[in-house]
Design goal:
Layout: H1 2-9, H2 11-19, E1 23-28, E2 36-39, H3 41-47, H4 51-54, H5 69-80, E3 85-92, E4 98-109, E5 115-124, H6 126-146, E6 152-157, E7 162-165, H7 167-173, H8 177-180, E8 192-193, H9 206-213, E9 217-225, E10 231-242, E11 248-257, H10 259-274, H11 282-296, E12 298-304, E13 309-312, H12 314-319, H13 331-335, H14 340-355, E14 360-367, E15 373-384, E16 390-399, H15 401-420, E17 422-426, E18 432-435, H16 437-443, H17 447-450, H18 465-475, E19 481-488, E20 494-505, E21 511-520, H19 522-532, H20 542-559, E22 562-570, H21 573-580, H22 582-599, E23 606-611, E24 614-621, H23 624-639, E25 656-663, H24 671-687, E26 693-695
Parallel strand pairs: 25-26
Antiparallel strand pairs: 1-2, 1-5, 3-4, 4-5, 6-7, 6-11, 8-9, 9-10, 10-11, 12-13, 12-16, 14-15, 15-16, 17-18, 17-21, 19-20, 20-21, 22-24, 22-25, 23-24
Helix pairs in contact: 10-11, 21-22, 22-23
């Protein structure tokens, strides 16, 4: 029982790894094909196979068409050399679902150094890779918005490494994008400090707190050393970007350069300390300082603890929405402007900062008497005497309402693009690299079904190759293409979009792809379609013929094709109505339309009902003779319907007469005369006995 003994010896290890979420497989290395002799429950849950289904099989039964050959080769070499190895590869579950697994293979030898077993530790990393991919895909979405704002913006992954930085952040931090990207918070060159000059530990960084707690952090201030050893003071807001499991997968931080504000506050502190010694300069300094506060929307206050006297600048009155010196200043009065649900938290923070002898920063709302809500950033510090008794508290109040609105707008814009616009981004070859949620919703495809595909996946067969050829010609010149496209949903239905496709550039100005922004115009196109369709047959009407004949002639000439205009008329149709009734006559007209649709089903074929029993078709042929062949096919197809018509001797069934005009791509034609010549050929067909095709003689059409 040597193999069983080996398994029992490893029992504790297997239990521990199972608890840690690892799938475990054990193969018998003494047999040629190294069959599996044991797998744990986690292995079965990941693969969908039961133990009895895998016992005796080699692990390669999990491989599929996308399994990485390099990983397989690495495992094969390790096994041949009786060595350990670690690979990441794609396996397939019992229901053929691909998943990504990180596999560690370890050989087990007996006391005589003979290879007995191979133990595999499998960790499913599918979700992790999907999260990382989703995060990177969002980077470009943010670039469009972030490049337009003056505040800095950083996106960091779950490890705290910078993924993206907008131009403003690069300017504020004095670092280029290449110097910022992939730089973790623990990087020794990333030196940050508190307002008192002490180091700012990475665990206290707003991004770290957000990733740890999943909660946003607002208005944190720190000093950041730039490469020239100068310090930029920034005020940070950090928000979590959560995955589908509502776990923090990344964090987005916006920050404002408050270096000038920080300097102003330093001057304020210095001024307050010198007030007692330089009272003769008080008025001048006070007026200058009040003006600075008004410009910066920053008010200051001083609380003298021995006397319990509180004073604050006129700007505090203005921030509260009151006239300067319009009421008696007390702490209780100030608290009356703070909403009840935030009041206690502010009082607790103030008291705790005194107990801990530290500065404090607190963001809260105030409610003005006129009902307006404003957002405040309150900061303060405390002075203590030599006995440790508090002497005074000094602080500032900053109206940050506009910044709060900016933060909200950024989040709203991202959401708007994602949910309200049909947006896609492609590389230079047209492969889709990102789509908005609304693109997925209107097309019926999941995001993973669209990524990596061309837009042909939603191309409607009625859209001609010429449209897309013109589109690519324009955008390859790095110009913008605008137009309307008919697209095909996954379920086979269609929708219309009005779209604008523009070139996309990276931060260095390199052309990297294209961005398409579209709106849904299906309802509008449906109304237009009603206006150009015959209600009974569904064919195009005379109005649509008049609108399109010019562009169809031009298109046929550009492509060097013959354009054929065919008119047909049901023979003795009045007698049919008189004999069988108008309702039966309507059914005949529908049948004629059905035959035309069946014969002419290419994207560039147009069938019309011109009026009464008169129909027409506009189509292209490569050779002149093909036009007459198609007309004869229509004539025969209608004859073969074998619709009884006793008034149409000698055939006694429904027939049609057809007139055909072929237009040489090398000639120009008077458009208004095309209809006339085809109509004359039609009536020559009737005069010649009906149930036949007559061509317009080549010398008849008027050329110009």
């Amino acid at each position: 029982m040597p193999l069983l003994n080996d398994l029992l010896t490893a029992e504790n290890l297997i239990d521990a790894m199972t608890e840690a979420g690892y799938a475990i497989s054990i193969a018998d290395a003494t047999q040629v094909d190294m069959p599996l002799i044991y797998v744990n429950q986690v292995f079965c849950e990941i693969t969908g196979y039961a133990l009895d289904e895998v016992r005796g099989k080699n692990c390669r039964f999990l491989h599929g068409m996308d399994t990485e050959s390099s990983a397989v080769e690495k495992m094969r070499n390790a096994i041949q050399n009786k060595q350990s190895c670690q690979v990441t590869l794609t396996n397939y579950t019992k229901n053929s679902q691909a998943y990504k697994v990180q596999l560690s293979l370890t050989p087990v030898f007996d006391e005589k150094d003979r290879l007995r077993l191979y133990v595999g530790f499998h960790q499913d990393v599918t979700q992790l890779e999907q999260l990382e991919y989703s995060l990177k895909s969002k980077k470009k979405e943010l670039e469009i918005i972030s490049s337009s704002i003056n505040d800095g913006l950083l996106v960091k992954n779950s490890k705290g490494e910078v993924l993206e930085a907008n131009p403003a952040s690069q300017e504020i931090l004095g670092l280029s994008l290449s110097e910022l990207v992939d730089k973790p918070l623990l990087d020794p060159s990333w030196k940050t400090i508190h307002r008192d000059g002490s180091d700012y530990p990475s665990e206290e960084h707003p991004s770290t707190k957000v990733l740890k707690t999943g909660q946003p952090v607002y208005k944190q201030e720190m000093g950041v050393y730039k490469p020239d050893n100068s310090i930029s003071w920034i005020q940070i807001n950090s928000l979590p970007l959560k995955n589908e499991g509502l776990q923090s997968a990344a964090v987005i931080s916006t920050f404002t350069d408050v270096t000038s504000l920080r300097n102003t506050e330093n001057k304020l502190q210095k001024t307050n300390r010198l007030l007692q010694e330089k009272s003769d300069k008080l008025n001048t300094l006070s007026r200058s300082f009040e003006q600075a506060q008004k410009i910066a929307s920053v008010g200051h206050w001083i609380l003298e603890w021995p006397s319990k006297k509180l004073i604050w600048s006129d700007e505090v009155f203005r921030i509260l929405g009151e006239l300067p010196q319009s009421f008696q200043i007390t702490y209780k009065t100030f608290l009356s402007f703070v909403p009840l649900d935030e009041r206690q938290a502010l009082m607790d923070e103030f008291s705790q900062s005194i107990q801990e002898r530290r500065e404090y920063t607190f963001k809260h709302r105030i409610l003005r008497k006129n009902g307006e809500t404003r957002f405040m950033l309150e900061r303060g510090f405390h002075d203590f005497d030599e006995k440790g008794q508090i002497k005074r508290s000094v602080g500032t109040i900053n109206d940050v309402t506009e910044q709060h609105k900016k933060d909200f707008q950024i989040a709203s814009y991202v959401e708007l693009i994602n949910r309200q616009l049909i947006m896609s981004r492609t590389d230079l070859t047209g492969k889709i690299v990102e789509v908005s949620d609304f693109f997925c919703e209107i097309s019926g495809y999941r995001r993973e079904e669209l990524i990596g595909q061309c837009h042909n996946i939603v191309r409607h067969p009625e859209m001609t190759t010429e449209v897309f050829s013109d589109l690519w010609t324009i955008i390859k010149r790095t110009e913008t293409w605008e137009g309307e496209l008919k697209n095909l949903r996954k379920d086979g239905s269609y929708y219309w979009i009005e779209t604008r496709i523009s070139p996309e550039y990276d931060h260095l100005g390199n052309h990297i792809g294209y961005v398409s922004i579209s709106i849904d115009i299906t309802a509008q196109k449906s109304l237009e379609e009603i206006a150009i369709r015959d209600e009974m047959t569904g064919l195009y009407n005379r109005r649509f013929y008049n609108q399109n004949i010019h562009q169809e002639i031009r298109r046929a000439k550009r492509q060097g094709l013959w354009l054929c205009f065919m008119m047909l008329d049901a023979d003795n149709f009045k007698k049919y109505n008189d004999t069988y009734g108008h309702q039966a006559g309507d059914e005949v007209l529908k049948t004629l339309a059905m035959v035309l649709k069946k014969v002419f089903r290419r994207a560039g074929d147009y069938c019309f009902r011109l009026g009464g029993e008169e129909f027409a078709v506009l189509f292209e042929v490569e050779h002149q003779k093909d036009g007459e062949i198609m007309a004869e096919e229509v004539c025969k197809a209608i004859y073969d319907q074998a619709i009884e018509h006793s008034g149409n001797a000698p055939w006694m069934r429904l027939t049609v007469s057809i007139g055909v005009m072929l237009m040489d791509p090398l000639n120009n034609y008077v458009e208004e005369e095309i209809y006339k010549y085809a109509d004359e050929a039609l009536y020559r067909a009737k005069d010649a006995g009906r149930n036949r095709v007559m061509m317009v003689e080549e010398h008849l059409p008027e050329l110009f």
